[in-house]
């Protein structure tokens, strides 16, 4: 991810390779904040990045409301391959957070490239580079109850002009143990239907623990697993790390 931008009373404008608006919607639904790791399924085509993009964030006309719009252009020889346009609306009011994102994109040679590997683009049937159009949406609702923060999201990707679609949903919990430690769990599932009516199902679960070592340094541990119906093996990951903010 690399971009330059300007900001002021007009809002902000950024140019370069950037996360799509839908990425932030689904990331907000994941209490582990590790959306690229095994255990999250179904977010679809819009949870990715796009090159040659321009993103505009509008100034806050309503307290708590954020509006983002983006246009991106692919880097393949086919004129429309990888092109996309999308937007997101986010509203925060005290313990409540609601977000919605939508995107229209044209199939590229690597339709599942980006941040999350999903069957969203591969089980919709045969995609034609430079002409097949994918319409995606994502919605997230979160509420902080104090003892626990609850997240829920839904996401859908449809192949325009067909009955092919991919739907996913997820549920997460963020549990503060004390001032320094937090536990998180996220469970998600998805179903996809191609043009012939064939269905494929996914499911995933992941767990994480975060511990603040200082104001700017945090250690974490992660375990995640996801599987697809009919597949011989499941995908699993275990990770430990330290994050430091500068």
Protein model, in words:
With 246 residues, this protein is mainly beta. It has one helix and 13 strands; from the N terminus they run ββαβββββββββββ. The protein has one helix spanning 21-29, and strands at residues 2-8, 11-19, 49-57, 65-72, 84-93, 96-106, 133-144, 149-159, 165-176, 181-193, 199-212, 217-228, 235-244. Strands 1-2-3-4-5-6-7-8-9-10-11-12-13 form a 13-stranded antiparallel beta sheet, with helices on one face. The protein is globular. The model is unreliable at 111-121 (pLDDT under 50).
Radius of gyration: 18 Å
Q: How many DSSP helices? A: 1
The largest sheet, given as strand count, sense and whether it forms a barrel, is: 13 strands, antiparallel
What is the 3D shape? globular
Number of strands: 13
Strands ordered across the widest β-sheet = 1-2-3-4-5-6-7-8-9-10-11-12-13
Structural class: mainly beta
Mean pLDDT score: 82
- Kindly, what is the distance between the CA atoms of the first and last residues, rounded to a whole number of angstroms? 18 Å
Helices and strands, in order, run as: EEHEEEEEEEEEEE
Strand content: over 45%
- Which percent range fits the helix content? under 10%
Return residue spans where pLDDT drops below 50 for at least 5 consecutive residues. 111-121
